[in-house]
Each structure stands twice: as C-alpha cells, then as structure tokens.
Amino acid sequence: MITILDYGINNLSSISKAVKHLGYGSQVQQDLRGATKLVIPGVGAFGAAMQALSPLADEIRAFARAGNPVLGICLGQQLLFERSEEYGEHEGLGLVPGRVRYFAPQAGLKVPHMGWNEAKFRPGYALGEGVAYGAQVYFVHSLVCEPEDDADIAAMTTYGQPFTSAIQRGNVWGTQFHPEKSSATGLHILGNFLAC
C-alpha cells in the first residue's frame, strides 16, 4: 500500500489527488501500518517537522533500510538528510549522507525560491526516466540539500547557484520541488516513483 504520511506538517490533499489521478490507491495515515511505499511530504521548518516525526523516526529508518521505496517531497526530502542548519542545528532521519543549508546570500537573489524552474535530471536515474532535460517544475523553498556523495544527485537546478533538486539513493528518493504541483512533468516524476 502507498502510504502518504500525515505528521501534522504537510500538504496532503494535492498529493493524494495526484496519486489517484495516476491510477494508484493510497492511504493518508499517521503511521506505517500496511505500508509498502512511503511518501513523506512537508512544508514548514525542519526542527518542528523532526519533532513531529520523532515517534516514527526509527520505524521510518527501518522501513527504508529494509529496501522499501521512500519519497520525500520538499521539506520531506530535506528530512531524509543527516542534519539541517534551519533555525539552528537539527538532526534528520540520516537516510542520505549530507546536510541541508540556506541559500548562500547573493545580491538580488530572492529567498524563498518560489515558482517554476528547470530540473536537469542526470541519465540513469529512474526518478527522472522519460523527463525532458531541463523540464520545468514548481519550487517553494529557502534551503537546499547537499549530499555528501555526488552519486545521490538525480537532478540539478540553478537559482543564483546550482543546487540539488532531486536525489536518488537506492530506494530512497526525493524532490526539492513539488511534483504534485508541477503539471504533467511532475505527475510523470511521481509516476516513476509509484511504478518502482
């Protein structure tokens, strides 16, 4: 069963509708009972999200380490990493080695990065299979993920600086953008995960 995790800090209805539109059934729930695939959405702050997730954190780690597919979206992707500097230092789920940091300050660069931008998927990553190089996707974020291992980077985007916009580390996948709000391209990317 595809489980969309409700931990009180996320946008659930648009993801549920997108999954249904793609022809898949899903459950929005506050635990992992019966889950075979897990979607971790998220909006808001890293520290508050990890606090909300704390009762499930070890179960999520075990679920992923058992080889079950996991997709983090926006803040959900950031939570997959080891730590974040958002409003202080916070530990994440640690499923992807690396950290989350603020955009480097640049004159004229508006943060949060909000709106449509290119996602340049690298060849050989199932998350981006069939997606045109540089396809437009929708972002709303102030922080970026920095994987320790370049092999975990599935897609890059440039906003003042290049940053990781999607990751794939084995069965653990993530998008900094919102596939559920990224029109046909986003639905295709979400479909790649649901079909894995």
Walkthrough of the structure:
The mean pLDDT is 96. This protein starts with a strand and ends with a helix. The chain has one domain (2-194): Class I glutamine amidotransferase (GATase) domain (Rossmann fold), CATH 3.40.50.880. It has 196 residues and is of the alpha/beta class. The chain contains 5 helices and 13 strands. The strands form 2 sheets. A 9-stranded mixed beta sheet has the order 2-1-3-4-13-12-11-8-9. Strands 6-5-7-10 form a 4-stranded mixed beta sheet. The protein is globular, with a radius of gyration of 15 Å. The longest helix has 12 residues, at 183-194.
Q: Give the end-to-end Cα distance, rounded to a whole number of Å.
A: 13 Å
Strand content: 25-35%
* Topology pattern, helix = H, strand = E: EHEEHHEHEEEEEEEEEH
What's the CATH class, please?
Alpha Beta
Radius of gyration: 15 Å
Shape: globular
* Mean of residue pLDDT values: 96
Runs with pLDDT <50, length 5+? none
Tell me what the CATH architecture is: 3-Layer(aba) Sandwich
Number of separate helices: 5
The tally of strands reads 13
How many domains is the backbone divided into?
1
| Helix content class | 10-25%
Query: Largest sheet, described in full?
Result: 9 strands, mixed
Strand order of the largest sheet: 2-1-3-4-13-12-11-8-9
**CATH fold group:** Rossmann fold
Q: What structural class results from the helix and strand content?
A: alpha/beta
The named CATH superfamily: Class I glutamine amidotransferase (GATase) domain
Give the SSE layout:
Layout: E1 2-5, H1 13-21, E2 26-29, E3 37-40, H2 46-53, H3 57-65, E4 70-73, H4 75-79, E5 81-84, E6 90-91, E7 96-102, E8 113-121, E9 135-141, E10 143-147, E11 153-158, E12 162-169, E13 172-175, H5 183-194
Parallel strand pairs: 1-2, 1-3, 3-4, 4-13, 5-7
Antiparallel strand pairs: 5-6, 7-10, 8-9, 8-11, 11-12, 12-13
